[in-house]
Amino acid sequence: MDTPTTTHIPDRSSPGSTRTARSAFHQDRREKCDTGANLQKIRGRDLISLATWNVRTLAQTGKLHELTHELKIYTWHIVGLCEMRWKNFGEHQTEEGHVLYYSGELDTHANGVGFLVNKSIKNAVLGCCPVSSRIITIKLQAAPFNITIIQVYVPTSEYDDEHVETFYTQLQEVIDKVKRRTS
Fold first, then answer.
1. How far is CA 109 from CA 2, 8, 128, 170, 171, in A?
2. For every residue of 17-71, which 3-state class applies, written as one string?
3. How far apart are CA 111 and CA 154, in angstroms?
4. How do residues 28-74 score in pLDDT, each as one tens digit?
5. How would you classify the pairing of strands 135-140 and 99-103?
6. Which 3 state secondary structure label does DSSP give 2?
7. Which domains does the chain have, with CATH numbers?
8. What is the pLDDT of residues 139-168, one digit of tens each?
9. Do the Cβ atoms of 148 and 64 come closer than 8 Å?
């Protein structure tokens, strides 16, 4: 068995300096750093950072680039986004190689949810399901079982009871569809 080595990777906090990350060679002879480079499958021992962010809007030109620039100071793998205000649903690759999955209103720049998936784990994404402009799910290939994440943007108290009730009914249907691991 190969012994772990130390690899120097750039440190984002100060230009020109480096930090070290432990790495190991796996059975298929690929080297994997602790940074999680190009995960095909998330394993129980992998550290995955999840976050949520109410971005208020990404509908204006340059806002997505601004978001990815802001995220450079954090360690993140998946960011659940609310109030994106993008129309329709789809997938978009950023300049940095991250993937944005989104779901919004069909004809207006209102509401909207999404996931920004770091390029290091984008290959672990099995699929994304846009449910509405307020609910989206993403399924990740993982071991010992796959992971489904649900991102929601809940209606505020300004909405009528019928709208809120419809949202929660739809959310419960999504939760019920997520397969749970049986013992």
1. 53, 44, 21, 21, 22
2. CEEEEEEEECCCCCEEECCCCCCCCEECCCCCCEEEEECCCCCCCCHHHHHHHHH
3. 10
4. 433 333 444 466 889 888 899 999 999 999 999 999 999 999 999 99
5. unpaired
6. coil
7. 5-35 (no CATH), 50-177 (3.60.10.10)
8. 999 998 899 999 999 998 899 999 999 999
9. no
